[in-house]
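Quick illustration, no need to memorize.
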Amino acid sequence: MGMLEGKVALVTGAGGGIGREIALAMALAGAQVVVNDVGASLSGLGETSATPGEQTRAIIEQRGGRAVVSTDSVADWEAARRMVATALDAFGRLDVVVNNAGILRDQIFHKMTPEEWLSVINVHLNGSFFVSRAAADVFRRQSAGAYVHMTSTSGLIGNLGQANYSAAKLGIAALSKSIALDMGRFGVRSNCIAPFAWSRMTSSIPAETDAHKARVAKLQAMGPEKNAPLAVFLASDAAAHVTGQIFAARHNEVFVFNHPRPVRGVHRSEGWTPETLAEHGMPALSGHFAPLDRSPDVFSWDPV
């Protein structure tokens, strides 16, 4: 018996990369899978295709599992409701939602267009809400359910040229925490994974200098399948005590992230003025300011 035996999982963006590996792993763990993918380019532009999702479904079925394909867009509320209906129509239930679908429109902030901003927010943040919300009624009725959302160290820590992506991914972490708080009474859990892997999403990383090329070579050694075991665990009953958390999977390492909390405070009985803040408040707090780190500054060692 697999850890997900008898369960039904909806995995968005499952036509390739991390999403495909999670869908395959969940199927091997016993789940029946709704493979969702619009079959779009990395930027989300151009024609769409059912082929990537069909390829994932074919692999699952070749291995003895069961799967159906959905080509609906996560960025549309009615489409998200259709995904959930697809699970219920095909398998009679829904137990797991994996919000993995995503696109990239990287651009330095002062050159980013409203369209570049909205397109990424719509797929990542709105998409995670739409699919999660569409499944919420099912989870409430059955008093059980698990959400696994994909966040990113681009949002949790920071990166250059990704204001849209970073904002969406940090928003997803907050969304997951809110779901955990609001739906815990119904036996529903919600957690995040910040994945490290070489996939379509990371293949756009520039590799112009020798240092950049060396870093990309290390990323290429981290296959997308490394994130799947954590996703399967978080979706399973073995993780019944785990909710509202943020994890990262990096090759053979697994991390849990802290959440923002006050690190130091200052008090002035007569209150603060701009002048006293400049003279006393900020000097007292400045030793605890967060540095302008990027993700590679924090994860600066080689995975093993």
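The CA atoms of residues 161 and 289 lie 22 Å apart.
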